[in-house]
Design goal:
Number of helices: 1
Strand order of the largest sheet: 1-2-3-4-5-6-7-8-9-10-11-12
Number of strands: 12
Strand content: over 45%
Length: about 220
Amino acid sequence: MRPLALFLAAILAACLAAPPAGAGAWPRKQGSGFGSIAVRLGWPQDMSTWTSMDPTQDYSTLFFEYGLTDRLTLGFDIGHSVGGSGKSVLFLQWPLRQAETGAQMTAQFGLGTIAGEQVLRPGLSVGWGLQNGWLSIDSVAETYVDSGRTDLKMDVTWGRNLPRDRKLILQLQTGQPDGYAPFVRVAPSLVVPLRGPLKLETGVTWGLTGDTSMGLKMGLWTEF
């Protein structure tokens, strides 16, 4: 079977067996929080290049948000940067526009390290509530203090709430590491409830341009 056909079959299996993974444009209420841990494994789309079944990419992430007030969210993001290096970023997020209708908007500013180098990470999130779902655009710029180079990342996420507290998510992940070509990948997933507030997210990724990998994603997240 061709790689794309195999990958589409994996998508179908995940959807039959995938809220935004963070507040984004909607700030956390005071005293409420969100936490997630996820693993993404990747392989080349060209299966003729495989020498084994072992993944050629192995990324893990840890993400946490907590509402200090209704207008200020504290968070940390540990995992891999736009360019693939290890990162650890502490950030604050606050609303720019919160209204009953129309777009919701928040700004973010983070400090941390990527590959041992200090970085500044400003960000902007815009979101719209839809009937039974949402649409959001989350963007960040990772600026290295010493070298001055900047990596850019933007994710566009469409989500739909399903019966039995499940959620279907389709995400378009884009980025441009400084000095490298931009990339675009698609990442559908399904979120299903487990025990109590714990939820399981399973999904797949497929590089469309600037990324020749395909991958599997599995994560646990909770809100409190």
